[in-house]
């Protein structure tokens, strides 16, 4: 083969490279007369109905949108005085304190969730979400362990525990939890399928670390036995999870063609596929691109609906590139969606 032909062949078959970047792109509101009038109207509504949570929540969010963080904090604290056991207001106060640069006080505020509701697994889960977003995986794990003790039948909690174990490097414990979910015939396929996907990633890691060909063949056989739809080696895999029940949060992936792959268009022209559309809370939902095309994949989250009167949605995106291969990389991104209808672009994946 001539040098020029060799170069062309090398370029043609060179594996793609991936750059994964966090973004936070959401519709913004401009502080103007309309927003000021909305704030004044909400303040009046609260005077008339001080215990109406939807008005309280809307006022705090409007003040945040207007850039009035001190006023937003005061409004949230006034709300908490009459509604101390409300998870939403406690987390709002912590969020505002974080924005104001008082991280230590924010953590104390977040921790109050579990002090007030020590026997509530949702409170434990809510604090775990915040701790994961802050990178405090040890304490997040502890909160999820308490939540699991309070609700041992909840396999989604076990899935979250396994994810944190993975991120802490406790691969054997994570594998055992994923294996238990996969083996549980009472678990929904919406949960068992992503558990199989994550388990295959763990097995692939064990295979990479194996010392002998026999061991590598053993792990390959375990991966094959999972019979994964979409396979275990993919260019891109994205997982979406959130921490609230009776909520519908959707994963959107816009491929380099500009095509959106989501719940009503699950198969993209470039081969990317959405697995699962969880409408009852927590997730996970996942997207797989076996062979990624050059360009940008934008990953967005949409808050489609809620079965409660007032719920925000918080959670994480996990982006995996070169899944199941020697150079696999995983990236985790937190997000917050304050109200139904909100969308946020959380990450982008550049493929070259």
UniProtKB/TrEMBL annotation:
Gene Ontology molecular function: identical protein binding; peptidase activity
SUPFAM superfamilies, per database record: TPR-like
One GO term (biological process): proteolysis
Keywords linked to the UniProt accession: Hydrolase, Protease, TPR repeat
Segments annotated as TPR repeats: 121-154
Enzyme Commission number(s): 3.4.-.-
Identification of the protein by name: Beta-barrel assembly-enhancing protease
Species this chain originates from: Enhygromyxa salina
